[in-house]
Every structure is written in C-alpha cells, then in structure tokens.
C-alpha cells in the first residue's frame, strides 16, 4: 500500500483520531483532569473525523466523487474542533477581569436546557475553560489541541483537493 494512497491516508486519519481520543481519555481518567465543556465539544469533531475516516478506509471507494465526499465530511468535522479549540485558546488568553464566570457543568445544561441553548452556553465558554490545568513545553492543552486539529484539517484538505 502506497503511503499516498487514499486508503492509507484515511487509515492514518483514523489512527490519529484514536490516538487523540486515547490521550484525552488518559488525561481524564488516569491523570484526573476533568474536561471543561469546550474540551468535550472538541472531542466531538475528532470522533467525527475518526468515524468518517474509518468508513472511508473500510469502504475504499474507487469513485473520486465519493472520495471527495468523505474527505469533505472529515474536513467539516475536524474544522469544528479547530474552531472550538481556537475559541478555547482565546478564552485562556483573556485578561483576568474579562474571563467569564464559572457556570454550571455540562451535565446540568444538558439535563435542563434545550440543545440549542446548551450549544450557545458552551461556545460562550466559562471560567473553568479559561483555567490552565496542564502544560507541555510551556503551552496549554488547548494550544496543543489546536495544533493537532489543524494538522488533521490540513491533511483532510489535501485529501479533498489532491489529484486522484
């Protein structure tokens, strides 16, 4: 299998998604870092990319239109994660007096609010999203997530527009 083949790249995107989610779950369940609502929403796009890439890998379409449809759907889902991670980085870099106050947890919002209101409240961010709980090489987890998601988005974009 060539490293540039559609199937290989789809498998690579799937494995990268699995690795990203595995690391997130490791930080949550082994290191004890409770994910904020924005972190949870970032995972949604990563899981979406992983599922779409797995389907594309297993289906291995011969039709270029189907290849581009899978690539577009993967790009859309990981772009969601890029956007949410960028918002998270922005919240963490706000001056202390402009950080929103901490709100109720995501579980409470899901139980009490309509889905549209849950999305609105989560994307506004809250105080717990502005806290830096973990760093590596001086950068917070949302910065590393933004970098990781951006690389996956660039690979997905290349997969979408490359010549087959």
From TrEMBL:
Cysteine pairings via disulfide bonds: 36-39
Pfam families: DsbB
Domain of life: Bacteria
Cellular component per GO, a single term: plasma membrane
Membrane topology, as annotated: Multi-pass membrane protein
Residue ranges that the UniProt entry lists as topological domain Cytoplasmic: 1-9, 163-164
Residues spanning the signal sequence: none
Membrane-crossing segments per the record: 40-58, 70-90, 141-161
Gene3D superfamilies: DsbB-like
Similarity comment text for this entry: Belongs to the DsbB family.
Function comment: Required for disulfide bond formation in some periplasmic proteins. Acts by oxidizing the DsbA protein.
Designated name of the protein: Disulfide bond formation protein B
Organism whose genome encodes this protein: Acinetobacter bereziniae LMG 1003 = CIP 70.12
Lineage: Bacteria, Pseudomonadati, Pseudomonadota, Gammaproteobacteria, Moraxellales
Gene of this entry: dsbB
